[in-house]
Each structure stands twice: as structure tokens, then as C-alpha cells.
Specification:
Shape: globular
CATH topology: Rossmann fold
GO molecular function, one term: catalytic activity
CATH superfamily: Nucleoside phosphorylase domain
Low-confidence stretches: 1-26
Radius of gyration: 23 Å
Number of domains: 1
Keywords: Signal
Oligomer: single chain
Pfam families: NUP (PF06516)
CATH architecture: 3-Layer(aba) Sandwich
Protein name: Purine nucleoside permease
């Protein structure tokens, strides 16, 4: 009889206890309402020079404990309202691998999550200016295709053609209904500016480059290659037109890769791309491309801190609205 009782006790320890543990684990799963993904932070999350995450952290996560996720570049922070965020890492591989790790983690319920991919970017002076905040309408991968040196092709013709087989991953149109909401909620945000950025804009003859910053939208062009100069800027616009997307307004390094991860897991209907312009994608007419890439001291654009705060000011309008009206938004994007 003692042997029977001993076997029964072992059965409970081996088979029942893990079940109880799993039940407890399920009870602590965090429902993510909005996830904010930044790409880098300069130093700490608070108290020093702000990178892409610091203003988000100060607004939503200063009282949150870090949640470590295997495979993610940095901890995830979540507040009591279901807003979560993390620094994902720069570039396609670094950022998308972090997003995949977070999505697949059993610590979170992402079945209804809205994703805001947030960071700094460049903009062509014909379409934007320093301090602008842009919502993505299309995401295009700049790198997927064939390229050749211009002198090895037809004079004056584009030096790019799409590669067959990438049709489903080289561009993503973001949800037009969600884009309409983001523009409506953030169009009245008063954006910050700096004296240095105001002076710097005057080096460019373009009307768009010289104006005050505003909230806009358009195609966000993703490239691990930090392309620069009027020639490659024109090529980015050519690709946007080739793919029948909106005008190219933002150059960044992560969005299409993250979109591909979401497309394979939870879908892209709740994905938003939010970028702030901290540089032009080319020099002014009296400046070479190489000089613009490596400016002398005192020749930088300025306005970086103001722009990263602008990103948060714009994005928080959407975040707060979704959370406040979660009983509606959890079921999908309502009519505006």
C-alpha cells in the first residue's frame, strides 16, 4: 500500500504540478493593446540625451518593470493600461527578429495589438523638412531588386529593376482606414522646432524644405543601405512610382522587415509606421553628397531632440485614443 501511495504522490508531482504552473503562467499573460517599437536609444531610457525611445518611456513606462524576452534585443515595458514598448535594434534583421521574439513570446497576448513602429528618418527636401512627423501609407523595400552602376547602363536611365519572386514582400500598403484615423487624431498637434533647424532649412531652395514642420504621410522607403544624394533619392521615388505607391517621403531602415514578420503572424491591418525627419536625404545645391554625409562641426541640421519628442507627441494621440476606447478598437478599426 505504501508503494501505491508513493506512486500516486509522484504522479501528482510530475503530471499535475506542471499543469498548475501553466495555469498560473496563463493568468499573468499581458494583453497588449498598443505596442511601440523604437530602434535605438542613445544611452539610458531616462535622464540623458534622448534617442528614439526616451520620450515614450517617460510618458508611458517610467513606473514599469522590464520584461525580458528571449531573442529580443532589449526588455519590453508595459504599463497598467496595456501600452507596451521596447527598443528593437537598428536595421532589418535586428528590428524584425526582436518583433518576432516578442510576438511569439507566451508572456503577451498580441491577438488584438496595434503596432506603432517609431523612429527617426531622412526626407527629400522636395517633400519634407526637419522636424516633420510622417505616417506611412506604403512601406517599400529599397534593397530588393537588381542594381548596376549608372555608367554601365543606358545614359540617364534608372539603374534598378525589381527582382522576380519578391512581389509579396517588397511593398506593403498600410491599412487606409487606420491611416485616416492617425491623420485625423494627430493633425492638430503643435510640433516643436529649434532655432538651429530653422537656420539650416534656409540652405535649401525648396519650398517644402524651408517651411515649419508638420504632420504628413506617404511612402516610407526601407533600406539597410543608407542611400544618400539626389541620384539615389530620385531612384527611391522611381521605385515608389514603379510599385504604384504614394510619393516617397521618408527613408528608414526597418519597417518593411517588421511588416513581413507581422504579415506571417498576426497580420498588418493594425500596423502603423511613424517617423520623424532629422535629416535631408541629400545636400543643398552648394554641398556635395559626401560633405553632407560627413558634415563639419556646426554644419549639422539640428532639431534632433525636438523631432524625437514630436514623434511621441503625435503617436501618443493615437495611442491614448485607442486605449481610452478599447472596448471598440479591440474588435477592429471603427468608421471615422
Amino acid at each position: 500500500m505504501k508503494v501505491v501511495h508513493l506512486l500516486s504522490a509522484l504522479f501528482i508531482m510530475v503530471f499535475v504540478t506542471p499543469s498548475l504552473a501553466n495555469t498560473n503562467a496563463r493568468e499573468t499573460v499581458i494583453e497588449m493593446k498598443v505596442f511601440i517599437g523604437a530602434m535605438f536609444e542613445i544611452g539610458e531610457n531616462a535622464g540623458d540625451k534622448a534617442g528614439e525611445f526616451q520620450f515614450w518611456y517617460s510618458r508611458y513606462f517610467s513606473d514599469s518593470e522590464p520584461i525580458f524576452v528571449k531573442g529580443a534585443a532589449n526588455p519590453v515595458y508595459c504599463n497598467k493600461d496595456g501600452v507596451c514598448g521596447s527598443v528593437l535594434g537598428m536595421g532589418k534583421v535586428g528590428s524584425s527578429s526582436s518583433v518576432q521574439a516578442i510576438i511569439l513570446s507566451q508572456q503577451f497576448d498580441v491577438s488584438h495589438t496595434y503596432f506603432i513602429i517609431s523612429g527617426v528618418a531622412g526626407t527629400p527636401p522636395s517633400k519634407g523638412t526637419i522636424g516633420d512627423v510622417s505616417w506611412g501609407s506604403w512601406l517599400i523595400d529599397y534593397d530588393l531588386g537588381h542594381r548596376w552602376s549608372p555608367e554601365e547602363g543606358q545614359l540617364g536611365a534608372p539603374a534598378f529593376t525589381p527582382r522576380t519572386g519578391y512581389e509579396s514582400i517588397r511593398r506593403y500598403q498600410l491599412n487606409p482606414s487606420l491611416l485616416e484615423w492617425t491623420l485625423d487624431l494627430s493633425r492638430e498637434v503643435s510640433l516643436k522646432d529649434s532655432a538651429s533647424a530653422q537656420r539650416y532649412r534656409q540652405r535649401y531652395p525648396n519650398k517644402e524644405a524651408r517651411r515649419d514642420p508638420k504632420v504628413n504621410y506617404g511612402t516610407h522607403m526601407t533600406g539597410d543601405t543608407f542611400f544618400h544624394g539626389p541620384g539615389l533619392s530620385n531612384e527611391a521615388q522611381y521605385i515608389a512610382q514603379l510599385y504604384e505607391a504614394d510619393d516617397y517621403v521618408i527613408t528608414e531602415m526597418e519597417a518593411t522587415a517588421i511588416a513581413q514578420v507581422l504579415d506571417r503572424t498576426v497580420g498588418t491591418k493594425r500596423l502603423m509606421s511613424l517617423r520623424g525627419a532629422v535629416n535631408f536625404d541629400q545636400g543643398h545645391p552648394k554641398e556635395s553628397t559626401l560633405d553632407h554625409l560627413d558634415p563639419a562641426p556646426g554644419e549639422t541640421a539640428g532639431g534632433f531632440e525636438e523631432t524625437v519628442e514630436n514623434i511621441m507627441l503625435v503617436g501618443s494621440k493615437v495611442t491614448d485614443h485607442i486605449v481610452k476606447n478599447w472596448q471598440i478598437w479591440q474588435h477592429g478599426i471603427p468608421e471615422l
